[in-house]
Amino acid sequence: MEDILPNSNMAIVGGGRVCKAFLETVKGRYLAPKKLNILGVADIRENAEGLVFAKSKGIFTTSDFRDLYTIEVLDLIIELTGDNRVLEQLKATKPRDVRLIDHFEAMSVWDFLQIEEANVKVKEKLKKYETEPKKVQREFDLFSKHLSKIVEERTDHLQTVEKELVERERALSQIVQGSTLPTFVINKNHIVTHWNIACEKLTGYKADEIVGTDKHWVPFRQKKRPLMADVIVDQMGEDELRKYYGDEWKKSALIEGAYQAEQFFPQIGGKPRWLLFTAAPLRGAGGDITGSIQTLWDITERKESQEALQKAHDELEARVKERTTELINVNEELKRSEEKYKTLFDSAPNPFFIMDWKTFKILDVNATALDCYQQTKDELTKRTFFDLLFERDKELEEGLRKLTNNQCDFYPKRRHVRKNGEPFYVNIVACHSIHLGKDSLIATTTDISENVEKEAQLVQASKLATLGTLASGMAHELTQPLNVIQIASDFFLKKIGRNEEISKDQLKDMAEEIGSHVDRAAKIIKHMRDFARQSDVTRTRVNINEPIKDVFKVMGQQLRVHQIEVQLDLNPNLPYIMADHNRLEQVFINLVTNAMYAMDDKGMRLGEKKWRRLLRIESFPEDKNIVVRVSDTGKGIGEEVMDKIFEPFFTTRKVGQGTGLGMSISYRIISDYSGTIDVESEVDKGTTFTIQFPCAE
């Protein structure tokens, strides 16, 4: 500083209390000979202490710091606002030949001024007390204490900055670990620094095996070659990028400097997969690339301590300079950490929300959230996380309120809403965290609207297939009402043909009989139409006995034809659950259909041997759940296929008798409503499916 400040023509941006202290020291009689020229002060507040003091001393003042650039001899600007946004504007607009000292480095300026002022004072007094050693010793002791105080203040600030740096690094790690997307981070030396849980599950490689090495290619390639994250770190040109990825890559439309591509990998985590991956650069405070973050989608499905000051004036002054230099280095590290945190936060391909733990008010969001929710940052930070819901979700609210001590939880298929009112489905992962020293929640949302729509189409296709399979049974249900109407019609025609009168009692009986059977046929047709409609993943209060009973409107006759005895033991006083009637009926039709085929297969094998064909369904409350058991006396399920029955397209039926989607769809529907399904089976004795749903509040 002693080489920079003397004879400099300076201006100050930020005319607060610190500015006034600077001016009072520089304009004081002890530092006047140093020729420290302050030519202007800028602050948007007209009543700012430093600005008012500058005016009283005849120094040029302004509310726009750009006016300072008009001072011809200006060669140094000191920024004292503490606002990083102002600092960035100064960096971008100041003349090239004007040096900028930010609010971090300004601490060194203030230390220099204090030391120089104290130095001048001591020298004056030492000359005055030259023949009085005791007074010289006293002044020297006072000067030493003053310098010690400066060192102590800087050391305390250094420790505070270090603590904040550690907290930011922890938050950075939590963001990566909390992501539902497989994510890893490499540094500029291609060494892996983060390998999250989702990446472990995708690849089968643990973080302990990968972090700290450059072997992030091993889970993906048979031979070593650059992954997309390496391409970013090495800043490869498009020709070299094309060498590794052909025409399968493209620039990210959302993140500057990022690339994405999709490729087929024959062996990822034990199975072949198609992966869509995006890699984005991580930049330091100076804009240089310091690493890269790569995310993947499976599209098939610091401390230092204070030392005692025991040396004389020169040693103390040197210590102050030493500590100040360390502080500058730590501040630079903090800047780089902030930039790294900000880049990683904004580069995440999923929306991220940081919210207050108690009020759930949104504190910060990343760029992806702004694009996904079609709102500005100011709009989102005026709302709570629950304001993004399409409808109230008590389960989500209560779950988030219970998260503590770095706990995380997953909430699938929640409906959120964009600014224009358009609802869409998301999966939510929320984690408790400490953000800037306060209890906070970090949540990420993944848009799964397309998957939900495809699942709905799959469920709908399964319904239509079920209706086709049960067509003969429904035809029989409709035949009986038609026969009654036909008999009545023949009766009327005969009477008319014979010119015989029909009594009022006969007319009344016939009309009531026709009306009764027409009503029965209409109910059957209405039920089929309601069942066939496409339903959303909605939640309403449902008595689970109702969809169970409706199954037998569709399959009653078919079960009788197959000589299957039905026992219903349904508790009439069940609490409600939150689900959809239509989808639950699909689940129970699938289970009853499977039971019917299982008993048919057993009957064909046993031939004429007598045995009891029995389908039993019972419902009852247990703890805070509703339990339904569906049991049959069919052929049972072998241990060799027990683990596969909920897999899509797995079936034990012959070709043409089933798609293998029924149990997979049933499993998804039950999971959508926070339920579980378990199976017990014994070959040749039968199978029991046990389904549980939580009771509605």
Polypeptide structure, described:
The chain is of the alpha+beta class and 697 residues long. Helices cover 45% and strands 22% of the residues. It is built from 20 helices and 23 strands. Strands 7-6-11-10-9-8 form a 6-stranded antiparallel beta sheet. A 5-stranded parallel beta sheet has the order 3-2-1-4-5, sandwiched between helices. A 5-stranded antiparallel beta sheet has the order 13-12-16-15-14, with helices on both faces. A hairpin with a 7-residue loop joins strand 8 and strand 9. Helix 5 packs parallel to helix 10 and helix 15 runs antiparallel to helix 16. The radius of gyration is 39 Å and the shape is elongated. About 2% of the residues have low confidence.
